[in-house]
Amino acid sequence: GESVGLHLPTLSVQEGDNSIINCAYSNSASDYFIWYKQESGKGPQFIIDIRSNMDKRQGQRVTVLLNKTVKHLSLQIAATQPGDSAVYFCAENNAGNNRKLIWGLGTSLAVNP
Amino acid sequence: EAQVTQNPRYLITVTGKKLTVTCSQNMNHEYMSWYRQDPGLGLRQIYYSMNVEVTDKGDVPEGYKVSRKEKRNFPLILESPSPNQTSLYFCASSFMGTGTEAFFGQGTRLTVV
Q: B45, A101: Cβ pair inside 8 Å?
């Protein structure tokens, strides 16, 4: 598969457990955030987004939490499955950067059967 | 099926030989963008386009050109490729505008020797 990063933070979980992936963002003016999943050999896949006027948003098996006070974002995956093994990226969008996304370097999630 | 299609998936070329990586989306999205992904550096935006005939530089535009003559296509052109352009390239599109990349292509692995 494609290597997407060197020495990425890695989270290892057991199948069926819940996973929490954390992300610190850089700009307090950022008002839109996206989580992406990238499997080996594939392009990033949009998972879930959240706007700054929300603290929490839920999708199918995923929840994103936003703490603007400490500029922290987290992605929670319920009942983690082997198919969830991938690199997860958070990205922030703010008007001060001409609305371009600022990407994190990613976290590798490994799900053990 | 909604998708972003890039071609080719893999390309090995020699320094200085002009090449084009094509990108096409079938979702009638106005916003499209190009990224490169390098180990340890994450995803960096090369160029983006808000609509037909509207393009702008991203964070790493040097050595690249783009065009947007029609809504569905957004080719990336390397007029004189150099070894430092060896990378994994992704095209993306979105219906929500700048910094909301929702769909990514499968990627083009480019090697310049």
A: yes
